[in-house]
Predict the structure of Glyoxalase/bleomycin resistance protein.
Amino acid sequence: MVAMNITIHQSYLPQDDPDAALAFYRDALGFEVRSDVGYGGLRWIVVGPAGQPDTSLVLTPPAADPGITDEERRVITEMMAKGTYAGINLATDDLDGLFEKLQAGDIEVVQEPTDQPYGVRDCAFRDPAGNMVRIQQAK
């Protein structure tokens, strides 16, 4: 069997306020905006880390799939409000510096930089939609 070269190209996170999502991912984290597309009153924003053009995060309207029921939309909205619907793990080579920068803004801190028993040092924030954003020190 031939080994396959597979990479992560895009990952999706819900956002319910496109401007707030941009302020967090572009302005606070420094991600580049790759595209910003509106359709039917909804908006999909593709962002990614500078220098990594092949890796993107799609900030998508929650429950935009037409196959989702009203009850499913309600559950998704409730889970987003509690911060239990979606999340992402990021890495940096300067966790403390990034934490200080983010903490100085209007961002909800969930966990300050901590040495974890499983071998990483990380911190956690919630983005404007309530998604958990964990950031760990790159080794």
Notes: Residues 31 and 49 are 5 Å apart (CA to CA). The mean pLDDT is 92. Strands lie at 10-14, 32-39, 42-48, 56-60, 87-92, 108-115, 121-126, 132-137.
